[in-house]
Write a structure and sequence with these properties.
Blueprint lengths: L3 E5 L3 H15 L2 E5 L2 H11 L3 E5 L7 H9 L9 E5 L4 H9 L4 E4 L2 E2 H12 L16 E2 L3
Parallel strand pairs: 1-2, 1-3, 3-4, 4-5
Antiparallel strand pairs: 6-7
Helix pairs in contact: 2-3
């Protein structure tokens, strides 16, 4: 079984970096979306195993997209990690109220990203695991 991750961010650079890291170090299939509306559509079509979702995006923000995804029976148990520079307690609370499984504040490093992957997918989710050097890569903006 191939693990599928949906990366959602309005920055195409962040999506490219995230996609390259996951493909190189995990072998997971990576699907991307540039806004919340596209994220909902991709989640329905692709049935990802894990979603990393930015909060501040055009067309639909991450909180609204998370709420929409949680309404769908086929997606209600998919872990959603909110990834944002808005680490204020009110935003974190809003993230959990919208249905996210975890909240990761930018900037973060690859160790934190690896921790989220293992937390929700487990190290056995893919025959390839994150490479030893993966955790040492600094990621300023996902």
């Amino acid at each position: 079984m191939t693990v599928k991750i949906l990366l959602v961010d309005d920055s195409s650079t962040a999506l490219l970096l995230g996609k390259m890291l996951f493909k190189k170090y995990t072998g997971y299939e990576v699907v991307t979306a540039l806004n919340g509306r596209e994220a909902v559509l991709k989640a329905v079509a692709e049935k990802p195993d894990l979603i990393f979702m930015d909060v501040h995006m055009p067309r639909m923000d991450g909180f609204a997209a998370c709420r929409e995804i949680r309404k769908m029976e086929s997606l209600e148990s998919v872990p959603i990690v909110m990834v944002t520079s808005s680490g204020e307690s009110a935003n974190v609370e809003l993230g959990y109220e919208s249905g996210c499984s975890a909240y990761l504040t930018k900037p973060f490093n690859a160790n934190e990203l690896q921790e989220m992957v293992h937390r929700f997918l487990g190290p056995q989710a893919s025959p390839r695991v994150l490479a030893p050097g993966f955790g040492q890569l600094p990621i300023a903006k996902y």
